[in-house]
Amino acid sequence: MRKSSGSFRARLFCGGASFGLLLAIGGTAHAQAQTPPPPAEDSIVEAVVVTGFRNSLAQALNVKRTSAAAVDAIYAEDMAKFPDLNLSESIQRIPGVAISRDAGEGRQISVRGLGAQFTRVRINGMEALSTSGGTDASGGTNRGRSFDFNVFASDLFNRITVQKTASAETEEGSLGATVDLRTARPFDKRGFNFAVSGKEGYNDLADKYNPRAAALISNTWRDDTLGALFSIAYSKRELLDEGTSTVRWQTGTAAAPGFRSVRGVTCATNAAACAEANAAVHPRIPRFDWYKNKQERLGATGSLQWAPSDKTLFTFDMLYADFKGQRNEDFLETFTPQTAGACTASSPASCGINQVDVVDYTIATPRTGFPVMTKGTFNNIDLKTEQRHDELETEFKQFTLDGEHQLTDRFKIHGVLGYSKSEFKNPVQNTVQWDQYNVQGYSYDYSRGDDYPTITYGTGDTANADAWTLAEIRMVQGFVDNSYKTAQLDGAYDWNDNLKIKGGLAYKAYETDSVALARSNGTTANVNPVTLAALRNIPRSSYAQTIDFSSLSLPAGNVSSWITPDLNAAITALHMNDPSYNSAVTTTPGTVWRSPFATTCFTAGCGMYNLGVEPSLGSNYTVNEWDTTGYLQGDFNFSAWGVPVRGDLGFRYVQTRQKSLGYGVVPSTVNGVNYQTISASTATRSYNDFLPALNLVIEPTEDVLIRFGAAKVMSRPNLGSLTPGVNISTGSTKTVSSGNPFLDPYRAKTYDLAFEWYFQPQALLSAAFFYKDISTFVQSYTSALSTFDKNPFGLPDSAAVAACGTTPGCSPDLPVWQFSTSINTPGGPLKGIELNYQQPFTFLPAPFDKFGFLGNITRVTSEVTYLTSTGAVAAKGQLTNLSKTSYNATLYYEDSKFSSRVSAAYRSKYLTQIPGRNGSDVEGTKATMNIDASATYNWTKNLAFTFEAVNLTNEIQDQYYDSSQLVSFYHETGREFFVGFRYTF
């Protein structure tokens, strides 16, 4: 049984540290065995050149020490040699940074408790945004402002800087931090340079090998006044992502009208006998999941630098990334416990929970007033097996031209022109579902809590393809384009030796286009259920495959394999590649649809696999932003009563203009005819912000710094929150949602106080205290389940009838509808502390003087007010995506021949939804501890061999429902090991 526990993590961390220590001592012994005789006395020089990992730490520490703002940095050990496999996993070593993962890799970051949407990312000096697509549990397609770091190979970058306090010269848009990513340039290391590396990886869960390779070449000419650089990185990865999920829990009565009978008593005639079972929450979609991921990541950078004089420098940078993926998601499940609708004689076989007889059950009460059906046996459950296939690609391009010129001895100008574009494509997302109806003796057991359940399928036949019936075919496409155009001009004037005046103007044009397509007959109705006999009669065995689930240590009683659709074969068997198949004209009795889109469904007819935007109107939008900014800042440096004082003081003024376009359905009735008109809505607005900022550094002694920062900051609302139009979705959850294009941005006042002690070379002990008073917050509010007439948008029931079509359990009079919108709320305070310690152990006797340690811990708390759509207080609690505690620790060893390190990254649990859905108080993700190790042996000056171990604990991705922490998503991805080489010249 696979179970993560604190003691196990502690033992493994100690074991990993011991492993690194043994490797280090072994490397030391080897080095000592080959130690040359002492040099002649006249050959000894005092200069000590620090290289490798220690050198990267020293450079980062120097940046932190000399900066006026609160800054942390990571430097590459050498050109094209970043110290981690993944870019976001590099960033997580910075104090206050925590990452969230998808498919076993870091995807997004949070800084000081503020989620990814509050962090701005700049690449080579200009803001950029890259988005990708993940599993539904990890956020699905990124249609917001959060930066997906997994698009990029870490080999493409040689420096990461995280600025945690604002300054006037740093562009606005962040509540948490501004992250600067810097690619390599030829003047970084002049002359001819060449580096190449290769690695072969192995994943122990997937039993697959995964190659990686990178190369860099650069040179400078004409007395180092002209330089060129090119780098490339490639990786291929195949893994399994396996586990269980429930897609939340809910009560029996939430899927009205609830169970048919309980322990032999019919609920319609004796409601009291069924009350306990119906009042308890049960898993909505209890299932086992098997994800198979294939990924390819290609990246390239190019850089040209020209210094026509010692006063002028031009730099042109290019960055390209292409991140491709294929993912199969296979499920063995039941939808019956979450499907509403009273069963009748004419109901379909899969009419929902009202067909279910509860044979027996067990109730637990993890918190007062919250009963949970942890175990149950049921009759008349409908089983479901499905496969979903996604093809995904993110292509990123960026070009920047940077120029600086020293006009006089005191006056310098600097300009940036840039363009970036991120194009995410999900051109294929096909799903085929089979059902098996009215299974007797189905049971589940979730009583073990944080572990895999036991699910048995009674009379169901999970191994025979033709025991199943074709039930649903889903076909979806999604596209998200983000682009930035930037122009910036700055000037700096040295007023005197103690004061520098800076100022500048900038213009930024940002555009995002989101497109989502689904099977459509020209209306918003769900047309995925298959009723065509010609398709249902095709033998399922002609497009079937078996999923092997034996790699997981499941409790006794679970199946180790099951039959599922094979989409590769289904495309041909079910005619899915023929958009004209079964063409027909759309007719809706009593209803006339009007659409602005080019559809022939109402006239000439369209095939059953026709794709259109109509069923996914809420994900089709365009948002444009034009930001015009100016700033003025003074950098000062003086002595007060013999104490050095430096810093910066200034303000930034920004005007934001927004234009958003979205779609909705406008219902109307004329002469008894119900018209459903799909229409576009456009909204424009603008707002201004005045953002003062102060950074102050006092040096009471040579090695002690006291920092203080204060600023007003702002962050623009998430993109999906800004779209106009009301949209109805009738999938497994029936939702009515609307954006709010007139939202105010997030606004806050921030304060930072830090004490830093540089007590020896390359060493630091520091404490930082921070406080953010968030005065304007943006909250997405989702109502409790109710009937459609309770919607706050004024929609008539006819809109629900038109959207439901023939979907079972979908009717305006059923309490299955959730309403959501975005509103501004008062926010609340956020406060925390960061402790940071790093030190090389040069004071110890050999061989321990080659060891070193760096570690940090961050504690954050917040209290944000969450409102209902009417303005009443719904809850007060933590910010979503905020982990109260996070820490990172690395023990390393390095000498001229050998280096090794073991690292641990911990993130405590965090909330993802407040209030939670389906009657819960919250939803969240449990704590994680990731442990990695690496070792390098320098065979010669130019050739090194490497070993790396990633995710040694095989950490579980564990999402929960309610504060009682019922399992929602519980997956593992395995450990990865890499062996490789690196050659430099």
List keywords for this structure.
cell outer membrane; receptor; mainly beta; 985 residues; six-stranded mixed sheet; 22-stranded antiparallel β-barrel; signal; disordered N terminus; 7 helices; TonB_rcpt_bac; globular; 54% strand
Ordered list of secondary-structure elements with their pairings:
Blueprint: H1 6-33, H2 52-66, E1 71-75, H3 87-91, E2 97-102, E3 105-111, E4 119-123, E5 126-127, E6 157-163, E7 177-183, E8 193-203, E9 208-221, E10 226-245, E11 249-251, E12 261-262, E13 265-266, H4 271-279, E14 281-283, E15 287-309, E16 312-333, E17 357-367, E18 370-379, E19 381-406, E20 411-439, E21 442-445, E22 454-457, E23 469-496, E24 499-519, H5 533-536, E25 544-548, E26 561-565, H6 567-573, E27 591-594, E28 611-612, E29 621-640, E30 643-670, E31 673-701, E32 704-715, E33 726-730, E34 734-738, E35 746-757, E36 764-782, H7 797-804, E37 817-825, E38 828-840, E39 851-862, E40 864-867, E41 873-877, E42 885-894, E43 898-907, E44 910-913, E45 923-925, E46 928-938, E47 943-950, E48 957-961, E49 966-972, E50 976-984
Parallel strand pairs: 4-7, 12-17, 27-31, 34-37
Antiparallel strand pairs: 1-6, 2-3, 4-5, 6-7, 8-9, 8-50, 9-10, 10-15, 10-49, 11-14, 12-13, 15-16, 16-19, 17-18, 18-21, 19-20, 20-23, 21-22, 23-24, 24-28, 24-29, 25-26, 29-30, 30-31, 31-32, 32-35, 33-34, 35-36, 36-37, 36-38, 38-39, 39-42, 40-41, 42-43, 43-46, 44-45, 45-48, 46-47, 47-50, 48-49
